[in-house]
């Protein structure tokens, strides 16, 4: 498996709302068009209204690479920049867990 956690910090409340709309549109396409994406979850952060955390889990690196090449992901990557102050990515190496197999 191949995964990552991403923390996004939006510029302000308006950009957070726009980011959430962009995320919703993107996830709709991920659900229907990406069989190699196991988990793609967006989270709000308690007490941090401008932050969002994504947890992404893919079958393998090839599935992640395929995700990155989709039109909806390319659109998300291009559109998010004007809405954010920062993006922090942690690449994950699977160790163990319920509902997952290495």
Automatic annotation (TrEMBL):
Superkingdom as given in the UniProt entry: Bacteria
SUPFAM superfamilies to which the protein is assigned, alphabetical: Dimeric alpha+beta barrel
Residue span(s) of domain ABM: 2-101
Alphabetical list of Pfam families matching this protein: ABM
Name of this chain's protein: ABM domain-containing protein
Organism: Planotetraspora kaengkrachanensis
